[in-house]
Amino acid sequence: MRLIVQKYGGTSVGNPERIRKVAKRLLETQREGCRVVAVISAMAGVTDNLIKLARETSPQPSEREMDVLLATGERAAIALTAMAVNALGGKAVSLSGAEAGVLTDRTHMRAKIANINPKLIEELLADDYIVVVAGFQGQTPEGDTTTLGRGGSDLTAIALAGALNADACQIYTDVDGVFTCDPRIVSDAQKLDEIAYDELLELAGAGAKVMQARAVEFAKKFSVPFEVRSSFNLRSGTVAKEETTHMENVVIRGVTLERNQAKVTIASVPDVPGTASRIFSAIGAANILVDMIVQNALEQGATDISFTINEGEVAQAEQLLRRIVNQVGASALTARSGLAKLSVVGIGMRSHSGVAARMFDCLGRGGINIQLISTSDIKIAVVIDQSEGDRAARLTHEAFGLSGSVAPSA
Ligand code: ADP
Ligand code: ASP
Ligand code: MG
């Protein structure tokens, strides 16, 4: 009998009516002759609300207690989903991450899955239950609750599909699949039928919220193909899988905009070994994630170092760096918020030249100033003013022929 893992995101279980629809789909899948494991997220807005509540209650809540708190969102949603299946005459049982056998390391709020012991799930499946598992959570070897980072239910689904050797893994969300750009930014973005893990990984890492980057990384590492599709209709979605040669014919698969970025610049840093290490060790020790880094050697033994971080972490970074700037003898520290990162991604870039020039030309003609540039073999990313972000995304999307009726550039 086929085994299928279906993950439903927050919007898909956003109210009782939607939960009943999910329950119906789970039952239909079972009636088609499948064993069914459902991975459920907290209802839309619940996780954000819990985070807000914590901040209003304590200036610096411990990460352990944050995990205990955040895990409640998914636990409520699994109980409601199982109730809805049972109310329709089905047979469902809900399991927390710990009960489902999800063992993690001890890094609270962004724990890594160490192992999955799916014994209980398998027993329940053998008894014809629809097994409804809480996404986004697990437990440490000591039994403490952990969570897997924002969007972490995607990771639970992929990891369970891998551990159970499932025949299919479907990620149900509020859009029809992975698009050439967030359809909320570019209205004529197109749904992709397929995408290579590496492309989705770069898109997710560059801010496309549709899949958690760590989940895609896991899927690639353990070769778990999956489909992203809508919970609101029956249309087929986007299949993410190992790349095939014909995928390389498409130069750009998609465009992503990540908002709320900031650029920190340390000017006239003495150009001696060890300086960059001091700066980034301090930032790393404070768990501040650095994205792009640009170092530009000036004349007379000095260099400017710029890097981007999330806007919300600028104050902390400035406080940390002020001391180091004095110690290393740099001349100034400046930070600029209100920026966005625009990225174009495609494995076809490896074998096509001129992609960067085309992107820069399009932005230049649109009067959009580029503040930083970074590249990988399948991505070109630029930092621009956030106020121009949406327009820049639309212009770039169009310049690469990704819009509506136009076929993607070959
Ligand atoms: P879920 O709650 O189901 O996990 P998310 O909100 O995490 O859903 O992710 C789905 C959202 O991702 C969509 O509503 C869409 O706005 C956004 N998104 C960003 N980039 C893309 C893209 N390239 N393709 C599809 N959706 C995207
Ligand atoms: N509820 C968690 C979040 O909002 C996990 C998820 O939805 O995937 O980040
Ligand atoms: Mg999500």
How do the strands and helices of this protein lay out in sequence?
Elements (H helix, E strand, L loop, with lengths): L1 E7 L7 H16 L2 E7 L5 H12 L5 H25 L4 E4 L6 E3 L8 E4 L2 H8 L3 E5 L2 E3 L5 E3 L5 H11 L4 E6 L20 E3 H9 L7 H9 L4 E5 L7 E4 L12 E17 L4 H11 L7 E5 L4 E9 L3 H15 L3 E14 L9 H11 L6 E5 L2 E7 L3 H11 L11
Parallel strand pairs: 1-2, 1-9, 2-6, 3-6, 9-11, 10-12
Antiparallel strand pairs: 4-5, 7-8, 11-12, 13-15, 13-16, 14-15, 16-18, 17-18
Helix pairs in contact: 1-3, 2-3, 5-7, 6-7, 8-9, 10-11
Bound molecules: adenosine-5'-diphosphate, aspartic acid and magnesium ion.
If you had to describe this structure to a student in words, what would you say it looks like?
The protein has a domain at 2-174: Carbamate kinase, CATH 3.40.1160.10. The chain is 34% helix and 27% strand. The protein has helices at 16-31, 46-57, 63-87, 119-126, 153-163, 197-205, 213-221, 275-285, 314-328, 355-365, 389-399, and strands spanning 2-8, 34-40, 92-95, 102-104, 113-116, 130-134, 137-139, 145-147, 168-173, 194-196, 226-230, 238-241, 254-270, 293-297, 302-310, 332-345, 372-376, 379-385. Strands 3-6-2-1-9-11-12-10 form an 8-stranded mixed beta sheet, with helices on both faces. Strands 14-15-13-16-18-17 form a 6-stranded antiparallel beta sheet. Strands 4-5 form a two-stranded antiparallel sheet. The protein is globular. The two termini are 41 Å apart. Adenosine-5'-diphosphate binds at residues 9-12, 41, 151, 173-175, 178-179, 181-182, 184, 203, 208-210, 254.
